[in-house]
Write a structure and sequence with these properties.
Strand content: 15-25%
Distance between the termini: 50 Å
Number of helices: 13
Order of helices and strands: EEHHHEHEHEHHEEEHHEEEHEEHHHE
Number of domains: 2
Shape: globular
Largest sheet: 6 strands, antiparallel
Radius of gyration: 21 Å
Oligomer: single chain
Structural class: alpha+beta
Number of strands: 14
Length: about 350
Amino acid sequence: MPGRPPKPRDGRRLKNAPTGFPLFYDKRKPRVVTSDPWAFLAHHATTKLPKDRERIALAYIEQAFDFFEATSNPQLGSKPLLHYYCFLNLVKAALLIKGVSLPTAVGHGISDPRVNRRQRLRFTGQRVHITGRAHDHSQLFPEFLQLLNAAHLLNSTCKVITMLGNIPSIHRTFTQVTGDDPIFLPVKRFDFMHAGGQIWLRVVLNRHDKDVELVRPTISRRQRFRRWLDLVHAPNPDEFWYETAPVQGRNRAVDRAIGTLATRISGVGAASILTSTGYRMYLSASPPGTWCPRLAASYAVAFYLGSITRYQPHDFDKIVAGGYRWLVEEFLATEPIQFIYTLASWLAGVDVVKPYATSR
């Protein structure tokens, strides 16, 4: 039988804790509440870019909005292509804001490989191929992956169903359709503790949450989880506590210390869902080598679905037959607005949230 976990470190909670941790953390600043993420993105581009680049980024954002608005009318068969071009233009704007110099002619950097044609009627056999980065930054998706700290996906071929499994907003549907076990561990809260010029993170889980019961045994065996988080004794019997090792964070170094912790926890496999009360954060128990950041996974799925509806529309209904149609419909209904708010939060380095609810 395992022994009692060690005591937690003695310390006090840090005042003015960051919002958006760990995915959107930049500096400790208040969250942005907006019912119009498009206006926020345009404002952010205006404040971050010189005039020549601002003009280009605003054009991308405006075109993305046009594609997004167009999805309110078409039937399912045409929505994927519209959503992909919305995502594509948003990512172009995001890369400009992040300082990536894009050439005039930009390739997708992701493709529908020939092997899919042999598996055309089996959704589980469908894949996307991701290229490597180009020296002139002309391949869009690889540049996006690089900024998302997902370079391990470059020059690889990934199953579309695996990408869908990395998107938390549709994960309930995903597990019901596929029969897979859940992989997202809900985090009740992140507590920042400090003492003696050091800062560490306490990850608090709800012991009685069904997903905690199901996912915690698996994620606690993952090397990337064990590398940064150690189980400690929780005085509250309704909670599990995990703590990181402390990092130096005295005075002006506090933000740098929190940034270090954000990088480490993001590397565990962090994901989020925008809810009526803000972002709910998760840690992923995905198998080694299959973890993909949520923004990248959503982009890859939108590309694949858009490619099918553009080049092989007669095959679309066959591919997404049965339960997979429900899964694709859930993706198209819920993920685009999540993608927009999550991308805005990633660019701003802070929560960008809706005033009331996540529904469109």
